[in-house]
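RECORD CONTENTS
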Amino acid sequence: MNYILYDGSVRTALLPFTFTRPVADIRVGILTIREKWEKFLGTTTTTVTEEYLSEKFPMVELDENIMINASYCPNEVLVEMISFLKPFQAIVKDEEVIAFYTTSDQEEVHFEDYEWLECEEDVLRIENSWDIFQKNDQAIREDFLLLTEDRVSQPIPSTVQVLGRENVFIEEGAVLNFCTLNATTGPIYIGKDAEIMEGSVIRGPFALGEHAQVKLGTKIYGATTVGPHCRVGGEVNNSVLFAYSNKGHDGFLGNAVLGEWCNIGADSNNSNLKNNYESVKLWDYETERFVNTGLQFCGLMMGDHSKCGINTMFNTGTVVGVSANIFGAGFPRNYIPNFTWGGAQGTQVYLPKKAFETAKIVMARRNVEFTSQEEAILTHVFNETKEWKK
């Protein structure tokens, strides 16, 4: 069977992260949503997404296809239901379609012609940007079981202080010495060729992706994911870093999500709790206003290729778009558009030519090419950024 993941109705609610990727390629837990589905299904998937993303994330359609709403994460019950889907059947939960069977000769899909199969099982769903950190605890636990079932961890080095060692899994090539791991609060997964430097103290749930690095004396509280090739230092609490992003120095990052190729300058901090303890409001791209998250703790949302200078202070519930460069004294605005250059003292457009020059240098340091596909995606994002259409 051919499986296709589609963005569904929540793509706009997951901006700025879905400016540069389909919903399926959001990381929550240890794996991206796509990686979870492919692990469960035992095969690759393709994507229905925005047209400007389709060259990098193409769709392959065959005679028979199962379309899956990528905002839902798989579990055994849901995957079994999908495996038994027949033509003109759809799986739904609370009147939202999770998956449906389609054929290449169907010009259009009319769900009134479908038999609806209700999914009674609880299913993890990512509907809002803050769900990425808010639901990361559950996602890490589920991914940990998925990745470690019937497998044996590499031995825990004798220099490591550990509680709940049965909940620690270390992949081949990982290096860790003279650090403290507390997995009684949740599982700790350490990916292939990752490193935890001396003096670091980590409480689970925690996931460290392959080739990622925890720097000297870092303090990490769960549920935190440090994605592949990321580097973290200082103090981190309940945050998700997708991949290739750095928060390598002292400073606090809490209840936050960083996309790819982000960099947080030394001694930078984000607030995750308002002084009056009220619910945090976050910028909503669809309504173009701030909406109430209902959360008491909510910190920083930063899109791909964005960076901040040393000693930057982000207020509670700050959203930074794609390819922004933030610096200077004082608190920047709680909403920073794509391709912004500046800070509290004033901002201007960060011209794509300059942003791309920096991206090429940054990516080359990690032996990754800044491709024409990447440039085309970011150019589209810039052209669609209303704040600079003046």
